[in-house]
Design a protein that fits this description.
This protein is an alpha+beta fold. The protein folds into 2 domains: 145 residues; 66 residues. Helices cover 51% and strands 14% of the residues. It contains 8 helices and 6 strands; from the N terminus they run αααααβααβββαββ. Strands 1-6-5-2-3-4 form a 6-stranded antiparallel β-sheet. Helix 4 runs parallel beside helix 6. The chain is elongated, with a radius of gyration of 27 Å. It starts with a helix and ends in a 6-residue tail after the last strand.
Length: 264
């Protein structure tokens, strides 16, 4: 009888090593790029980063100088953050959704993901108003949750940082409200019920951006004086005591909305 037979402790059992090897292979397979996650070069990612950033800036300029937010403008602004999330997702981790600060030089789509939603919300809330704010907030939550989910899928690093979660939820919510209100109003072809009312006052708010308000006398379903944000041209066109018209429509998404304009 040899020594190995006499001393079983010297006999090596390969089962634990085999199990460990299988576990390591499974982990590597899980972490390996999936179809559609083909890593890009840094140069390719930079081209996409600046291309999407230029598109976002162009949309913002269009949003600022357009006479009013029409259907094409609203849809374009609403789509750009999705293009940014898709580009980050298909880059295989080379292109990130958010930058981590000034020192972070990795390619990212932060501008394209954030800027159109901010510009869209600022513009449509200055033009369109809803009677049921709670319903519009619900629409914004659903739309924003979808974009936030896309951001999480596109950039795994966002999931690991609290600041990433906060930024993603905040920007998705802003986009959701702007896109929801924009689609509800700009794409609405329903007939309007027009109410006439008088301007009771006006004021200007100076915050991060200047906002202009007209205080309207009660009209239709609005039973009290109401301060309504309006574009600069509308604010400058009317004085206290002037008559304005308020067309009320059903809304594409079922949220009744109105705007303030001159009577024809």
């Amino acid at each position: 009888m040899n020594e190995l037979t006499q001393n079983p402790a010297l006999v090596h059992d390969p089962a634990p090593d085999l199990a460990a090897s299988q576990a390591e292979l499974q982990r590597q397979a899980y972490d390996a790029p999936q179809p559609g996650d083909v890593p890009e070069t840094a140069a390719q990612a930079r081209v996409q980063q600046w291309g999407l950033a230029a598109l976002a800036v162009g949309v913002m300029a269009w949003m600022i100088f357009a006479p009013q937010p029409n259907a094409l403008l609203v849809l374009t602004a609403a789509v750009v953050p999705w293009l940014a999330a898709m580009a980050a997702c298909w880059s295989g981790g080379t292109l990130h959704v958010f930058t981590r600060g000034r020192g972070d030089r990795r390619p990212n789509v932060t501008i394209a993901f954030m800027l159109p939603g901010i510009a869209l919300m600022m513009r449509v809330t200055g033009e369109f108003h809803v009677l049921n704010l709670q319903r519009m907030v619900a629409v914004a939550c659903v739309a924003g949750a979808a974009l936030a989910a896309a951001g999480l899928l596109a950039d795994r690093e966002v999931r690991r940082r609290a600041s990433g979660w906060i930024a993603l939820v905040a920007m998705s919510g802003v986009w959701g409200f702007g896109a929801g209100l924009g689609v509800d109003a700009a794409l609405d072809g329903s007939p309007a019920t027009v109410y006439r009312t008088a301007v009771m006052g006006h004021h200007v708010s100076h915050g991060r951006h200047t906002s202009y308000y007209l205080t309207l006398a009660p009209w239709g379903p609005q039973t009290e004086d109401d301060s309504v944000e309006v574009p600069w041209k509308t604010y400058a066109a009317f004085q206290v005591g002037d008559e304005v018209c308020v067309p009320l429509r059903a809304g594409t998404l079922g949220v009744a909305w109105y705007r303030v304009e001159g009577c024809r």
